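Weekly sync, protein design subgroup
Attendees: M.S., D.O., the rotation student, P.L. (late)

Item 1: inverse folding check
M.S. brought a backbone from last month's batch and wanted to see whether the design step gives back something sensible before we order anything. D.O. pointed out we never logged the input encoding, so this time it goes straight into the notes. Structure tokens as presented (121 positions):
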């Protein structure tokens, strides 16, 4: 089992920045790809960004150039730096860990509790 604890959400004005963090504990052998999903009210949960154990990154088109994902393998922590935030970025953001090299479309088996990001116009 892997337990994920997120932090860093909040309320920010459009154009502002936030940094999300997610620290994993438990069975470290189950941690390969790490990433972030988000879910806005009435919408499906979508993959925003992911990073492999060797730091290969992938982003949804909607956040490319604005969000940066990184990880610290020694601390078992993944970060999401979000810049130039827009109201449409408002959602609950979920940390996700997969034991595959890349995060599966539906997400890996381990999820954080979610953190709310609200961007006001």
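Designed sequence read out in the meeting:
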């Amino acid at each position: 089992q892997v337990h994920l604890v997120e932090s860093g959400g909040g309320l920010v004005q459009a154009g502002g920045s936030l940094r999300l963090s997610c620290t994993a504990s438990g069975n470290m052998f189950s941690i390969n790809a790490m990433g972030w999903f988000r879910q806005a009210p009435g919408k499906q949960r979508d993959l925003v960004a992911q990073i492999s154990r060797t730091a290969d990154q992938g982003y949804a088109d909607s956040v490319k150039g604005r969000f940066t994902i990184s990880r610290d393998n020694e601390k078992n922590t993944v970060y999401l730096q979000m810049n130039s935030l827009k109201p449409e970025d408002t959602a609950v953001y979920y940390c996700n860990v997969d034991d595959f090299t890349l995060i599966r479309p539906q997400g890996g088996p381990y999820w954080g509790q979610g953190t709310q990001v609200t961007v006001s116009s």
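Discussion: The radius of gyration is 13 Å. The mean pLDDT is 95.
Action: P.L. to compare against the previous round before Friday.
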